[in-house]
Design goal:
With 275 residues, the protein is mainly alpha-helical. 75% of the residues lie in helices and 0% in strands. The chain is globular and about 65 Å long.
Amino acid sequence: MRRGVKIYLLGYVLNFLRYGMYNLVESVITGEFRSDILQALFGMDILQFAGLALLFTGVLKKLKLREIHMLAIGGGLSVISAFIPNIDTGIYAANWFIGHFVSTPSDACGFPFFNWYIFVTAGMFFASILRRTNDPDRIYKRLLIVSCCVMVVYITLTFCFGMFFLCRDRNYYAASLPEAIGLLSIDLSLLSAFYFLLKRVPASKFRVFLDMSRNITPIYFIHWCILGFVDSIFCYLFDISFSWPVIYLIGVVLIVLSSWIAKLWAGRKRSVKVK
């Protein structure tokens, strides 16, 4: 729960560093406040959701609920979200508060809790199964078959009906339960495939990707800070438009640079702890 509070607040630190401070500086210089300054400073994103999810999970653990119960709660919240229409009170503060839980206008809402908590509980439930089994190979084989079948159906339907066709208004953030199942099928298919791949290929071959996985939160934070700087200074201030090849190149450089900085940061933290 303490980690949940830290990650939730970290989301607003990131808001300030990636776009908020640039909007504030522009507002002070021009004397005009852009309409998107509230979104830049207070918009909801994945870190705020993660913080809420950790807090709520802590409460459920305090109540001594098992993972199967948490999965049922996650599924129930996802179903409930499907019956709640997109809420717009006309007041940003109200939309921001409600947007923590269900869909509101996009400038105040991202990853609403009711829609996305199912991903957390699905992961916890799967982990509980792995901890209890004596034959993980059997679990992963069955999972690979089932999840691949669901994945093929989901991706095929996506080609037929368009991206996020199972989300309300095709809004990715308003993911429905069927959409969540489709996305989870991709995750679990890849997870199972890599499980068997690591039985044949030494883990050292994937050291870079394993390090990225361990440092995922710092990488996410750092890459958004760099991206916000490039977007605000070059694209907005200097009105520079990048071609698609340049955008892809920037993306690759961004991943490498943010991963390298995050690795240095993690190493520095470990050295400070040792001292």
